[in-house]
Amino acid sequence: MTPEEEGRLVRLEELVAHQQAAIEDLSRQLTDAWKEREKLRRELARLSDRFEELEEGVEAPAASQKPPHW
After folding, report:
1. The whole model's pTM is what?
2. Which string of b and e fits 8-38 if b means at least 16 CB within 10 Å?
3. Which of 1, 24, 45, 55 is spaced 20 to 30 A from 30 at the CA atom?
4. How far is CA 52 from CA 24, 44, 62, 63, in A?
């Protein structure tokens, strides 16, 4: 193998190593973001359920009832 070919091979191996590290980092970030999204989705569902419970417990708005002097 000529020195030029050897140098080219080394550069290609370095490039592959850097790309592999970048892919692993992006994969880790994607996994973390997915976990956070799922956590927020569950929290939103919980809060929506709680809000619906509170709405059901509230009496009809006074605007739909006739005032007592009518």
Report:
1. 0.63
2. eeeeeeeeeeeeeeeeeeeeeeeeeeeeeee
3. 45
4. 42, 12, 19, 21
